[in-house]
Structure formats: C-alpha cells, structure tokens
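Summary for the steering committee. The consortium agreed at its last meeting that each partner would contribute one worked example illustrating the joint modelling workflow. Our contribution is presented below. We chose a case with several input lines so that the handling of multiple components could be demonstrated. No manual editing was applied between input and output; the record is shown as generated.
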Amino acid sequence: MSVAKQQNIGWGREEMAKRTALDIPDGSYVNLGIGIPEMVAQYVPEGREVIYHTENGLLGMGPAPAEDEVDPELINAGKKAVTVNPGASFFHHADSFAMIRGQHIDVCVLGAMQVSEQGDLANWSTGEADAIPAVGGAMDLVAGVKTIYVITQHCTKSGEPKLVESCSYPLTGKAVVDRIYTDLAVIDVTADGFMVAELAPGISFDYVQQRTGCKLLPGPQLAEAANH
Amino acid sequence: MIDKHIDSLSDAVADIFDGATVMIGGFGEAGSPIELIHALIDQGAKNLTVVNNNTGSGHVGLAALIENGRVGKMICSYPRTVGSKVFPELYRSGKIELELVPQGTLAERIRAGGAGIPAFYTATSVNTPLAEGKELRNFDGRDYVMEYGLRADFALIKSECADNHGNLTYNKTARNFAPIMAMAAKTTIVQTGSLCEVGSIDPEVIVTPGIFVNRVVEIPHPAQESKLIAEGRSYP
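What follows is the complete predicted structure of the assembly.
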C-alpha cells in the first residue's frame, strides 16, 4: 500500500529533532547518528546537561567549529569537524565501543530504513546484490545502548511505509527500538505493537494509520490531548 | 640500548612481504599514516590483507594503495565513505574481497588479538546477516555470537609525539584505532609528528607504552589527506 505524500504537512526535519530533544533526560550520555539525529543536540531544552559521545573516540563533543578553527584530527563519526566541551575526553576505539557495548551510553538516536512492530531495526543495507554493504557502529549501538530512539520520515520518497509488520531489509538488530519520531507522529514500540503517543499538528490518527504497514494503537496520551 | 628511531620511511617498511596482514590506523583521514602508506606503495608488497575502518578517499593514502592493486582483501566496517570511489569499483568487479565487521566488533577483535585472547562473545550482530554461520551461545538469557581476535603482521600508525623507546601520545580523535593496532601487530611502525628524548614525555600521559612499538619515523609536517584530495592529487 502506497499513499501519495502531501507536501508541507506534519513536522519538518528541525521539528522532528526538536521533538526528540524533549525526551533526552538531564544528565544523560547520548550518541547521535548522522543526519537528522545530529540536529537533536541543538534543541535540548535549556537547563539540561547532556554529554555527547562520538564513537571515533570523544566524550564531551561540542558543536561544529568556525571555519578557521577546523581541525582535521577533531571529527565526529560522520567525519565532520567538531569541537570539545569543557570536561571532554579522548580515548581509543576499543574503549569507545566498551562505552557502547558495556551499556554505559543512555540514549542513542539514529535513522531507519524500516522499523517493525516488534522494534526490529533495518538501517544499514538494502541487501541488493550490487550494494556495497557498510555497517559502521550501528549494530553495536542498538545492541548496547540502553534506550534507542529512531528519527525517520514516516514513508519512503516513493510513499511506501517504513513502519512495517516485519522488515524486508537485513536487520541491524532485533527488538531494539523504543520510540520512533516521524514527520507525522511519535510512536512507542510496546509489547502489543506500535502505539501512537503524539500526532503532529493537523494530523489525524487515521492519516497516520493509512501510511503505516501494520496496525497502530492509540496511546492514552491521544485521548488526554483530545480532552484539552 | 633501545632505540626504535629509523631515519627513512623506506627502511621502516622494507620487510613488509607479499600476502602480509597490515593494520592501518585512522578513521577517515584523522590518524591516517599517509606517508607510511605511500612508502608501502613505493615498496611494492602486494596481495595484502588490510585492516582499517574505511577504504580511503580520493586517490591518495589507503585509496591509492587499493587503486595500485596491492590489496587482496579489506577487513573494515564502513567501505562507503564520501569520496570513496576506488574500492566500490573494484568490489563490484570482484577484484577485491571484503570482510565486513561491525565497528565495535572490529575494535574488540583487534584489542583481543593484542591481548592474547583468541575469541570472545558479543551481542552485536546477533539476528543479523553478519552473525550467519557463527557460533551462538546464550548467557543469562541473551544470545551472543562468537568473534575471533584479530592479529596482524604489521601495523602502520600515526602519533603526535614519540620517544626513542616508542612511547606514544596522539592528537585528539586521530588516536582511534592506533593504540589497539599497535598491540595486535607483530611489528608496529609509527610515523610521528615529533620525536623527543626518552624521559621527556610524562609517564602519566603516555597512551601507548613503547613495548607495543617497534619502529618510529619522524614526519614533522605530514600531508593532510583532504587537502591532497581537494588539490586533485593522486599517488604515486
């Protein structure tokens, strides 16, 4: 089932990042994936102290530097120039992944190609024969980080649902995703399946359901919001 | 007397043999020992198995080593970096082998290899294609996959500062895989920005103790990969 995507409705990229940032707790150690997830750092509400980890060996990562202060030996996992915040530390790759695999990182935010209603994530390969497979640290992050948030458009560019009964692409991890932030809704992965916690302004539950590859449950928050 | 300093790049890589496994430090260009890689291209060893997180960019450094037909197999986590054109072409035409390893598993395999640990179990990649054919074991209700420690004949790494005993410090995120690769290789060859007297690096700040290092070459002004690429350079 493919439903044509209407333009300019729901949340934009910044708003998705902003909404996700509300759920980053004060005092947490956080790893942000490449793309929209990186933008989350800009929107963490004031008054919360969050420490960012990048798997190439830096804890306490700061924002991008001014152009004349770029250091090619100070980069993030996306190989972009970054800065260090006060209290930052450098370490080698095995220590960096011990932080991930040893369950020391609290929250990871990453992108998705597909998420299943059991919380399976596919985000590294289409499995096509001529694709160059590349996994990076994604499998380590989903296996080791305590809370996994996914930010993704609700549908592919061609309108296919990315939230599905079961992933057709090769898995990154099984039953690993906790919450999904799309352009249309915030959706929790529960034992009963996908539960909608919040809808983007002007978006109805049915509209989201039509663009989802499996059954959605309305969360208690929706009834509450309707009563306000 | 211990003195690991070697004057020339060509002497430092002279004994790298055909078919050797070579770990090369760096994450993208950060920490890439580009002068040592170019010396290895000049030296001519072929059919190498190379361990690195990526497959190089442009036509210099690791990408040039691959482009010059010296690499039979890559062991890496992310062979698809922006600007990486050499590897994908060879891979699609079946001219180079790829062992794809999750980044944390790659790091831990290298660490384990260097620490004399032949294999270990990890939750990473369980229930994915990268765990197919590997031994699974359940500990406390969770499945783990067995991965082997990884060792190499040589490691080529870059340091910020070294002394003649091979004690090393690094610069920021250029450290990445270098300390563990130094542990996992039979012969570890270092290019360092500055070589200083034994005793002049505070023991509290040494990251790689000299026991893991065999040779040190001083390269005070190393080339910057992204700059070479921007200038359209290729090697040789």
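The helical segments of chain B are 9-12, 34-43, 61-67, 86-92, 103-114, 178-184, 225-230. Residues 25 and 103 of chain B are 13 Å apart (CA to CA).
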